[in-house]
Amino acid sequence: MAHLSKSMATLRVSGKDLQPGEITAWLGAAPTDSHAKGEQRESSPGRGRTPSSGLWSLSARATEPENLDAQVAELLAQLTPDLAVWRKLSEHYRIDLFCGWFMGGGNEGVSISPKTLLALGERGIELGVDIYGPTVE
């Protein structure tokens, strides 16, 4: 099976009462991006938005070709291995790994190792994927 051409992955923790500093303290790493509910954000130059919930996110380096196993390992290596912390977080917040998978051509695929699936499951991390077809020129 040919691997997908590119993969991007971001671990996200979100919730109405989420305070980014608390998540940083629990997980042991600074986020790539974060905001609290109601914190004014710039969505595009000159345009603002006010989020209805808080967000803490940590992005992995993009991989070409796709290598989700490496991206998950990169992210989790920065964060606490304490599963009790992850359970507490998953009881209060939504946790997901948001992935963008990019095809360079037809019939590309992805495999995720049992070790990676177990690591995500043990931490209550939902896997979400957007798949982008090849660009037509």
Outline the structure in words.
- By secondary structure, the chain is α/β, with parallel strands linked by helices.
- Helices cover 27% and strands 34% of the residues.
- The protein has helices at residues 20-27, 68-77, 83-92, 114-122; strands at residues 2-3, 6-15, 33-35, 41-44, 47-49, 54-59, 94-102, 108-109, 126-132.
- Strands 3-6-2-7-9 form a five-stranded mixed β-sheet. The protein has a two-stranded parallel sheet with strand order 1-8.
- The protein is flat.
- It starts with a strand and ends in a 5-residue tail after the last strand.
- The mean pLDDT is 91.
What tags apply to this protein structure?
27% helix, 9 strands, two-stranded parallel ribbon, alpha/beta
First-residue to last-residue Cα separation: 24 Å
Reading the helices and strands in chain order gives: EEHEEEEHHEEHE
Give the beta-strand count: 9
Global morphology: flat
Counting DSSP H or I runs of 4 or more residues, the number of helices is: 4
Mean pLDDT value: 91
Radius of gyration: 16 Å
Structural class based on helices, strands and sheet pairing: alpha/beta
Largest sheet: 5 strands, mixed
